[in-house]
Specification:
By secondary structure, the protein is of the alpha+beta class. Helices cover 59% and strands 16% of the residues. The protein has nine helices and six strands; from the N terminus they run H-H-H-H-E-E-E-E-E-E-H-H-H-H-H. Helix 1 packs parallel to helix 4, helix 2 packs across helix 7 and helix 7 runs antiparallel to helix 8. It starts with 8 loop residues before the first helix and ends with a helix. The model has no long low-confidence stretch (mean pLDDT 85). It is a multi-pass membrane protein. It comes from Pontixanthobacter aquaemixtae.
Length: 365
């Protein structure tokens, strides 16, 4: 009987290599299939813009693939776990390892170590690549797949309020006094809360105070009259600080930048429940890959000739997908304030960690 957590060095490397190749294979397969399906629905929108062609399609693929990799990497680990363990079971390799004195946890240890490294790589990939690609893609989509804004810090679909009045913009670029909005709409409301005037402008720049709209189409609701003016200044109560605070998007900010945004929100007494839940989920999300070998371990043990191997594989897959369903539901509840942010992000992880350990211990240990 061995008391080390890992088996021999040779066996650890063998299992880790076997596992990582299957993870990569499943990830490539999922990304190719999902990217092809996504292109079927997006190609028409991209090519409808004059001047767009194959280059823009490749740009879209380059921006969308990082999102698909980050989202479906844990699924790839789950499927790779089932394929790896079922294959080892069918070839009686699990029986040989247990006959040599290895426990179920020792058999799984190389897979858990590999999954932990995948989780760390996924976190780093999210921070350095996915957030930037998401910011650029959202800005491009907000511009209806026209020219991509050059500013990497571009924000899309901005919604701001100045008292009862509303200012919206399709994109917002720059910082400080160089902040600029594109595709701007301003709604003026009367004391009864009804919209009295609507202004549409190509762009808006900071006028200190207020925002100067350029090439404005002005519509008077009461008179049902439309006219065009060269420029107007609106939103004198909207400061640069408020603009930057209102345009926080957790999906386009890395872990540390989002942390600073949350601190700024809390300093002025703003609600941070949704941001805090997504901040925690930036850690718990990638770490979900570490759970997959444990949840799929039920497929590794039991005699392949007993006829229950397929059933065990289905149980492992069900446990893995149940985790993703519960995780998404908990995150949604946390965003709405139903759960505390810490509980929303981490409760599913520890719940299924206990479930996986319980199943493994009761069946094999």
């Amino acid at each position: 009987m061995q008391f080390d957590f890992f088996p021999s060095r040779s066996l650890t490397l063998y299992l880790a290599k076997l596992f990582i190749t299957r993870i990569l294979a499943m990830l490539v397969m999922l990304v190719i299939v999902l990217m092809a399906l996504d292109l079927l629905s997006r190609t028409g929108e991209i090519l409808a813009v004059p001047g767009n062609g194959q280059g823009e399609l490749l740009t879209y693929i380059g921006l969308r693939v990082p999102q698909l990799i980050a989202r479906f990497l844990p699924y790839s680990v789950l499927l790779a776990t089932l394929i790896t363990l079922v294959t080892l079971n069918q070839n009686s390799e699990v029986v040989a390892m247990k006959a040599a004195g290895l426990s179920a946890h020792q058999v799984l240890a190389p897979l858990l170590l590999t999954a932990a490294l995948v989780s760390v790589a996924n976190f780093a990939f999210n921070e350095r690549v996915v957030t930037r690609a998401t910011a650029t893609l959202k800005a491009w989509q907000a511009n209806d797949y026209g020219p991509i804004p050059a500013d990497p810090g571009v924000r899309s679909n901005v919604y701001l309020t100045d008292g009862a009045n509303i200012l919206t913009a399709t994109t917002l670029t720059g910082k400080g006094s160089n902040t600029r909005m594109e595709g701007v709409t301003w709604y003026s409301r009367d004391p009864n809360g009804m919209i009295s005037e609507q202004l549409r402008a190509e762009s808006a720049s900071f006028a200190n105070p207020g925002w100067k709209l350029s090439n404005v189409e002005q519509f008077d609701v009461s008179a049902a009259d439309t006219r065009t003016v060269e420029s107007l200044v609106v939103g004198k109560g909207l400061t640069i600080a408020q603009i930057e605070m209102e345009s926080v998007d957790p999906e386009t900010q890395d872990f540390f930048e989002l942390s600073r945004s949350i601190d700024a929100y809390e300093a002025i007494g703003r609600r941070t429940t949704e941001l805090r839940a997504k901040w925690w989920h930036k850690i718990s999300g990638p770490l979900s890959a570490f759970l997959m070998p444990l949840l799929g371990a039920v497929a590794a043990f039991g005699l392949a000739r007993s006829g229950q191997l397929f059933v065990r594989a289905i149980i492992g897959m069900a446990l893995g997908f149940a985790y993703f369903v519960v995780d998404n539901a908990a995150l949604a509840m946390g965003s709405f304030g139903g759960y505390p942010p810490l509980l929303a992000a981490w409760a599913p992880f520890f719940l299924f960690l206990l479930i996986g350990e319980t199943v493994l211990i009761r069946t094999e240990e």
